[in-house]
Amino acid sequence: MASGETGSMRFDNYMEGEWIGGDSRVENVNPSDTRDVIGQAARSGAADLDRAIDAAHAAAPGWASSTPQQRFDILDAVGTEILARKDELGRLLSREEGKTLAEGIGEAMRAGQIFKFFAGEAVRLPGERLSSIRPGVEVDMRREPVGVIGLITPWNFPIAIPAWKVAPALAYGNTVVLKPAELVPGCAWALAEILSRSGLPRGVFNLVGGRGSELGPRMIENPKVRAISFTGSVPTGRGIAAACGQHLKKVQLEMGGKNPLVVLDDADLDVAVGAALNGAFFSTGQRCTASSRLVVGENIHDRFVSALTEKLQALVVGDALDPKTQMGPVVDEKQLEQNLAYVEIAGQEGGKLAFGGDRLTLDKPGFYMAPALFTETANDMRINREEVFGPVASVVRVKDYDEALAVANDTEFGLSSGICTTSLKHASDFKAKSQAGMVMVNLPTAGVDYNVPFGGTKASSFGSREQGRYAVEFYTTVKTAYTQP
Ligand code: NAD
Question: What is the pLDDT of residue 3?
């Protein structure tokens, strides 16, 4: 398991109820200060993955027949511990991922709330009974566990996303193998460590770190894994969907976004600017629900751009762990280079850089950049078609609501969308016609509740929804039982 003080933590893998070291190790580096090596994470290969899957497979029948009360007790206790340790877990999260301390603690708290929510769901497992069309026959529909579920998670929500996959999987009686993103092994390890002491039988929960390109395909090919829940980028998701199709495996994908925030001429300016600032730049823009396209009415355009620019000038970029910081670093050098490349592309395409967009040199070596705002962009430019996944937003000027709606929907993605308006008519119409899985009125496109479904349309999502009661669709299978008493 993990041991050691700051700088020397070991983030081992967990399988069959044991901590194991993996084939090799990768450094976990703090993006706010690259001199700070948080620890060493286990990188496993095929043999460890197969062992974890075997363990989950062996544990599946026992866990499937555990009582709802047993599942409630374990998940509730896990939630209680996460909530009690939210400051410490949030700190680890911010240190390895780079979101601000407040955001890190908020995310840790969210993970605890999710475990508590699904503890409750474990004792509310729904079933249904219908009248048979035949006399004297009873028919009922029951939900059963799927079996072993492979969970593949990204780096940008290092504890909340594992939580919102692990908790429902366990609540509905499945066993799991979690493969987290290699950039953020600490939070996955911390979650595993809590689960390892929770009373879960051996093999029910397993953690394997390693390269996604190696472990992912192997996980999908293994016939013992019955379903894959993935969150990450569209290209990786497409490959997973194709492979799962070939292996006839249940699959759920949550992927990228190019989320529009519409600001109509009648919007409350403060509300709109607040929503844009939060939606586009908080968490360093590294949210699948980030408001990367700001679709703004021509009469409010100049006031909106100048007020948002003023906010960006005042935004404090710095070390994630510094309480004064309002925007932390980018997660790593590769992502920072990608962000800067898009700033370049947007400029070449004719976008006007209204603010930021450059790499920042602060008093410590880290992956810092100034938030970037482009104006005078057209919706067909690459900056408005492709997900940047950083603190980069662009303004598209529109003449009226109809054009705003058309621009908002003109994208291959459909995760989240927002509108700022004081018109009930336009708000209602937008909620009905926006081609997104989540629609926000006078709110940022990012920032959701854990007790309701999460997911998108078009290239943003595939399969049934995550979170809330709707998670039952993915994590159970339905059996129809007929009885002639
Ligand atoms: P990524 O696709 O590079 O990696 C995601 C996970 O997939 C990682 O664990 C990675 O190791 C693994 N992986 C890589 N190659 C694989 C393969 N061939 N087979 C199976 N697994 C493989 O994504 P990322 O860079 O970690 O995360 C950023 C992306 O995640 C963005 O596109 C963002 O929009 C998306 N995201 C979506 C949501 C959502 O709910 N819609 C939430 C958060 C992040």
Answer: 44
